[in-house]
Amino acid sequence: MGLSRIHGAEGEAVTLSATQLYRSPLGYGRVFFSEGECPLKNIKAIVAGQFIFLFMVAFFVFMAVVSPQFRTHYNLFNLWLDAVITGILGIGMTFVITTAGIDLSVASNLVFSAMIGAILMSRGQGVLLAFLVMLAVGLGFGLFNGVMVARLKMVPFIVTLGTLSLGRGLAMLSTRAKSVYGFPEIVTRIGSGEIGFFPVAGLIMAFLYVVAWYVLNRTVFGRSVYLVGSNPRAARLSGIDVERVKSLVYLVSGLCAAIAAFIQMGRLNAAKPNMLYGLELDVVSAVVLGGTSLFGGKGNILGTLWGTMVIVLIRNAMVLFGVSVYYHQVVKGLVILAAVLIDILRSGVLKKR
Amino acid sequence: MRKVVLLGIVVCFVVMALGVAAFAEKEIHIGVTVPGLFSPAFVEMKRQGELKAQELGVKVTIVSAENDIDRQFEQVRDFIAAGVDGIVITTIDSYGIVKAVEEANKAGVPVITVDRKSFGGEVFYHEETDNFNAGRLCAVYVAHLFKDHPGPIEIFIERLDPSVDSVEDRFQGFMFEVSQWPNLKVVAAPNLGMDVGKAFEATINAFQANPNIKVIFLPGEPWLSGTVSALKQLGKWFPRNDPNHIVMVGVDGDQFAVENMIEGYYDFSAVQAIDKFVANAIEVFVQYFREGKKPPVKERYVPVLGLCPENFDFIKDRVWGYRVYMEQKGKQ
Q1: To the nearest 10°, the Cα dihedral for B74, B75, B81, B82?
Q2: Which is it for the CA torsion A171, A176, A181, A184, positive or negative?
Q3: Which residues belong to any copy of the Periplasmic binding protein domain (chain B) (predicted)?
Q4: Structural domains of chain B, ranges and CATH numbers in brackets
């Protein structure tokens, strides 16, 4: 990727509130600069803007050098597949967090959708019908969250904490806490099959990221998401239906949960009501690690993908290096904290300019 | 110039390290995944496994799945990628783990399951407690205690995750035996999942709805502390010689059960040999990899040991929970 290309063909300056922002083709690095100035003159600033991507690449290269097992096709395939569920949920979460909201119910929504789909398939219903019902369940959760947050002005944290519990409870109730297993081959092929060297689920995730990047960066709705998150008052004065935008981002999150649920079923060829406990926190970590601000207005869809990859890489590295189980959570927490801290310090370089 | 020298030194070190690694004799590497370290039984299982690996001179990597079947699936895949020689699994879900076992089969990595089964895939060796009879033995003890009582003796069961076949088998064994005794009656059996807080809550709720509960059965003892706290709050925490005593029986034989038995509050524990499961699995693998010896049977169901105050002094040294309890006491 040539530097001139970033500035010329792909680079775009937009005005959000009173701030001049720059978006690179990688989606990351909304570099602050004064009008007319080319940000590429300062490589340091670009490096800072792409920090999490560079961190991920450095980590990847390091692992590839020190661990022969890491370089195997099986492991690389495995890494991609492991990133799928967190990655897809991260798409919806990025939309939500960019509007200064949060969706803690994503994993519960996923599990409940999966249980409903699993029950339908185990009773002989077709895959398509089960998938459509799962989409309806996922979107239903999203709609409920959206209405509560946008229309009834409830705090997103509390609303989605409630739906988190509701989803888990309904999932448990649906089968009295028992697992459902054995789905049609098409489901397992989508969840864990491959096309050539690529996992099917990984390709679906990649496609969803392309769509999400386009929506967030190239559509009026995407711009509205940023503006609603950074300055809802200004958004309203600009004629944006703030409540509608807020409702829609929770719908996006619900949709992502339903799609992830379908993939998850195929991945294990089983659905269990208490699977993926605590995944919502991994998703939030990936999103924040990727550069999306919890205070809204600053979102970065590809950053979420890199953040997800960093989390997956850490987990993989600890198993490959045989790190004691007691250190796993500690190491993961420290690396996330260090990455965010370094990112903040690097961003400071940008703001001083 | 200085930088070039430094870089040269670093490169030398890296090359030396890679060289040493390449020429070192390939040691046996075994990956172990346990459901979580929330239960003292799994902590002890891990510790005994590490000791056995040390004794036999093999490398072992033990990971915890934090009670998430998806994470356990990922861990098995990570082990395959890491090139381990064998994988030991104590699964969270007997159906959910099938795909992971099949993956290992495809990669040619033998799998041993312990404590809980995989309901599919090719398993090299399986070892678990005779769970059905462990639950049954607890009910026999209760029936024996109340053999002259006309009934109904109300029983509260702290049922754990029904999708975990081992604890479910204990529940089924207990229920089977209870059905043989007309004076015994189960009044509540809520699902607690894997949460000590729920044990507390469920006990409070059960006693509010059924104040005459006389027996509590715990298919797994790690949540005993929650139950004890609830009984204390309810004012129903009495020693065995008190007529108001609530009879407590369970499966595991962990240090909490032992401690409460020593203090005179706990009645019966069906003690598992769970602490040795991972260690045994490592031994089976080492014999196979070094000598080509396969285990004489593909599945082994280990009987439990009935521990009660009456036989405590005779068999305490064979109870893993007693050993852990004494070690912890020694540290204090």
Answers
A1: 160
A2: negative
A3: 30-293
A4: 29-115+274-295 (3.40.50.2300), 131-272+309-319+321-330 (3.40.50.2300)
From CA A152, how far away is CA A143, in angstroms rounded?
Answer: 12
Within an 8 Å CB–CB cutoff, is residue B78 touching chain A?
yes
Helix axes A185-192, A242-268, angle to 10 degrees: 110
Cα B159 to Cα A123: distance, rounded to the nearest angstrom: 27
Burial bucket for residue B141 (CB in 10 Å: 0-12, 13-18, 19+): buried
Residue B222 CA to chain centroid, in angstroms?
9
Residue listed under structure tokens 């409540």? A243
Does residue A181 belong to the interface with chain B, where contact is any CB pair within 8 Å? Answer: yes
The answer to whether B195 contacts chain A (CB < 8 Å) is: no
Q: What are the average pLDDT values for consecutive 10-residue runs of chain A, which has 353 residues?
A: 32 38 41 46 58 87 88 86 93 94 94 94 90 96 94 92 92 82 88 86 95 92 91 88 93 96 90 84 88 83 92 86 77 76 63 52
Task: State the maximum Cα–Cα separation within chain B, in Å, rounded to a whole number.
Answer: 95
Closest residue in chain B to residue A73, using alpha carbons only: B81
What is the pTM assigned to this prediction?
0.77
- Decide if A70 touches B, using CB distance below 8 A: yes
Amino acid at B207: F
CA gap B200, B194 in Å, rounded: 12
Best mutation target among B59, B163, B191 (most A Cβ atoms within 10 Å) is B163
Question: Complex ipTM above 0.85?
Answer: no
Q: Which residues contact A187 (CB under 8 A, 6 or more apart)?
A: A121, A127, A262, A265, A266, A269
Q: Which of these, A275, A309, A300, lies nearest to A26 by C-alpha position? A: A300
**Is the Cβ pair B63, A192 closer than 8 Å?**
no
A218's tokens: 């190239």
Mutate to test the interface with B, among A319, A330, A332 (most CBs of B within 10 A): A319
In this structure, what token pair is assigned to residue A348? 């400071």
**Any B CB within 8 A of A320 CB:** yes
Nearest to B191 among A69, A177, A272 (CB): A177
Residue of A nearest to B61 (CA): A322
- List the single residue in B31, B69, B191 with the smallest CB-CB distance to A275: B69
According to DSSP, the residues that pair with A144 across neighbouring strands are none
Q: What is the pLDDT of residues B19-29, one digit of tens each?
A: 444 444 468 89
